Q: What sequence folds into this?
């Protein structure tokens, strides 16, 4: 079974977005996202995918949507974008691909993935911005911090589930 790793930048108040926008700009955080996710399978919701506006190079993307007619826009690299209509469907597709499963948002996809996630890599942003998109709450007792790196403007924290989900 592949690892399911949730990757997110999260403000102190749990905000991860304001509509389709990220309500902060922290130098270096997106570079680290690229380092962590390249070579793996990204699973993200349609709104998150559309806010990025294109497939991210070096990664296979699985877009979750309830809209059975949705297809990615015809842009270079969009042939590497797959569509799934449930998180379980996305996991089945990812099982046939190289790399780990990286869950990259938004809030509904994170909430659906959380019970099955084996790891979280969180960029903790020391701000309390306004925003309507939040990272799901989780029991800290079910996770152990295995690493922490301090950067200017944020900490990057690695968490592993104490007991893997069934």
A:
């Amino acid at each position: 079974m592949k690892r399911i790793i949730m990757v997110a930048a999260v403000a102190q108040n749990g905000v991860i977005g304001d509509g389709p926008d990220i309500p902060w700009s922290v130098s270096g955080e997106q570079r680290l996202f690229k380092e962590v996710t390249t070579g793996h399978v990204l699973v993200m919701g349609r709104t998150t995918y559309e806010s990025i506006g294109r497939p991210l190079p070096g990664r296979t993307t699985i877009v979750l949507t309830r809209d059975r007619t949705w297809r990615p826009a015809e842009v270079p690299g969009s042939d590497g974008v797959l569509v799934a209509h449930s998180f379980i469907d996305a996991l089945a597709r990812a099982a046939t691909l190289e790399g780990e499963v990286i869950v990259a948002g938004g809030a509904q996809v994170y909430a659906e993935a959380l019970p099955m996630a084996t790891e979280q890599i969180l960029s903790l942003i020391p701000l309390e911005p306004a925003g309507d998109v939040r990272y799901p709450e989780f029991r800290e007792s079910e996770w152990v911090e295995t690493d922490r790196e301090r950067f200017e403007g944020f900490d990057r924290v690695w968490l592993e589930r104490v007991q893997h989900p069934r």
About this structure: Helices lie at 29-37, 46-52, 87-94, 107-113. Residues 87 and 113 are 7 Å apart (CA to CA). The chain has one domain: 4-161. The longest strand covers residues 143-151.
